[in-house]
Amino acid sequence: MENEITVVDAKERSRYEAQDADGRLMGFVDYHLHPGLITFVHAETLPEFRGRGVAGRIATKSLDDARALGLQVKPACPFYQSFLAEHTEYADLVKDAR
């Protein structure tokens, strides 16, 4: 199932979206983008797709993109707060982490 998840930055909606092989929305995270900073506000996996690693795939893609763009991350969403606590390889991205 994991290889059937595609994560895209839907910039026009200010959110990252996960879609299955048929293009169905599986989950998303809303964000606010400011110069040098991205704030992840609300993450949600649709009920029928929970337990399949969808939120983790969205988080990984969005954080990798933030790193590539040189953005700091503000995890306002509880899921992102716990994801970042568990995935210390992204600690350098967190605003005021130093």
Q: What would the principal axes of the Cα set say about the shape?
A: globular
Give helix and strand order, one letter per element, not per position.
EEEEHEH
Q: What is the CA–CA distance across the termini?
A: 37 Å
Mean pLDDT: 94
Portion in strands: 25-35%
Helix content: 10-25%
Radius of gyration: 13 Å
Biggest sheet record: 5 strands, mixed
Low-confidence spans: pLDDT under 50, at least 5 residues? none
Number of helices: 2
Work out the number of β strands.
Answer: 5
Structural notes for this entry:
With 98 residues, the protein is α+β, with helices and mostly antiparallel strands. The protein has 2 helices and 5 strands; from the N terminus they run E-E-E-E-H-E-H. The protein has helices at 54-68, 78-86; strands at residues 6-10, 15-19, 25-34, 37-45, 72-75. The protein has a 5-stranded mixed beta sheet. Strand 1 and strand 2 form a beta hairpin. The mean pLDDT is 94.
Notable features of this structure?
98 residues, alpha+beta, five-stranded mixed beta sheet, 2 helices
